[in-house]
Amino acid sequence: MQIKILGSGCKKCLTLADNTRLALEQQGLQAEMEKVTDFAQIAAFGVMSTPALVIDGKVVSVGKVLSSEEIARLLPTTS
Amino acid sequence: MEVFKWLNDQLLRMDWLAQLVRMLLEDGFGIDTAGRLGGSLHFFIYDVIKIFILLGVLIYSISWVQSYFPPERTRRILGGMSGFRAKVAAALLGTLTPFCSCSSIPLFIGFTSAGLPLGVTFAFLISSPLVDLASVILLASIFNWSIAIAYVLIGLVLAVIGGSLIGRAQMEQYVADFVRHSPVLDLPQTQMSRRERAQFSWQQVADIFNRVWMYVLIGVGIGAAIHNWIPEQWIQALLGQDNWWSVPLATLVGVPMYADIFGTLPIAEALVAQGVGLGTALAFMMAVTALSLPALILLKQVVRAPLLALFFSIVTFGIVLIGYLFNAFAYLFI
After folding, report:
1. B191 domain residue, yes or no
2. Among A14, A70, B125, B217, whose CB has the most other CB atoms within 10 angstroms?
3. Is B148 part of a structural domain of the chain?
4. Which ipTM was obtained for this model?
5. Is residue A78 part of a domain?
6. A43–chain B Cβ distance below 8 A for any pair
7. What mean pLDDT is reported for chain B?
8. CA distance A24 to chain B (A)
């Protein structure tokens, strides 16, 4: 699984990254995490409000600092 | 009318708090608040507490309203309009959409890639840091209602005219290429529940508090210094009403600075108390909040120099003009 956090590096993005890491840990999932701070790349996802969360190339949330529980619900369930 | 005045004095200006702090300082610590040190202390403690209380209550209620207008919805509303009406709507929505400087660029990209005209986008970008609902109430608290309303109207007019001029200039070619080629993402809009709105509003309060508390302390500190430590003649000589250059000077000093309106208001308040023209103080405030070096550096990544320079000069020129107008007509407001 590939996870991207989109955001210009402000505090909200860091919190979202932390919560995502926590959610992965709780679910016992492995994922490649990447922070995207470049505007051109963020724009390439069509995202307007940051921070945004991208799982496997799909934008699942914009403009929200999700809690780890909310993120867990968005993660693909373990097969 | 009496009731209204009482509510205004106690709830907005918090006269009770001024009294309380005075009593605490005088009776509790034996500090004379009429003196220099005591006066500064009083201004500092009273203003900091007042601004923090207002900030908390205001941000919470305003965030509630804002939760109905996420940027995606704003974009959809604006996309369905055109011409002058779209610019007015953009300026108005700029006061409502939740917005922090770190999200202004994605917003710019999102609006432009969806085909919104530059004029509309810039009307939004000018109005959103300059005029927000919180600033209105704070202005009313520190000065009075007529100044607050005049400030908002004039801020909106600046946004609409600035946006229209930029739209006229046909500078689409100066927008970075990747911006126009960005995809438009429209996530299915989920209706927020009451609980989510409350949660969102709380988070906004916490975020904004974390972001601005230092600016407030610094701003009130400078305000307290202006109030009691910097001789009035100096300030008069530099920014007094008789000097024609006081407004441009205040604007130029304010432009590179970056601070929130919450931090700048106490400075404006102290300046006015020292006899600086209302227009001069407001020009300073608008310059600090609307333009800043960090914001320009960010914008530079998505628009090229000519468009950036146009945006910059229109807003600067507008602020100076507003400063002169307020100075000329200040007698109507105070």
Report:
1. no
2. B125
3. yes
4. 0.71
5. no
6. yes
7. 83
8. 23
Chain B interface mutation, best of A48, A61, A67, A73, highest count of B Cβ atoms under 10 Å: A48
Please judge whether A59 and B178 are an interchain contact, meaning their C-beta atoms are less than 8 angstroms apart.
no
Domain count, chain A: 1
pLDDT tens digits, one per residue of B70-88: 888 888 888 888 888 999 9
Q: How many CB atoms lie within 10 A of CB B313?
A: 11
Contact criterion met (CB < 8 Å) for B71 and A59: no
B280 within domain boundaries: yes
Over its C-alpha atoms, chain B yields an Rg (Å, rounded) of 21
Annotated catalytic sites of A, by residue?
10, 13
- The number of distinct structural domains making up chain B is 1
Residue A13 lies in a domain: yes
Full residue range of the structural domain in which residue B10 is found: 2-175+213-332
pTM score over 0.90? no
Domain-located, residue B286:
yes
Q: Which of A10, A48, A59 sits opposite B107 (nearest CB)?
A: A48
Residues written for chain B: 334
Facing A48 at nearest CB: one of B110, B210, B298: B110
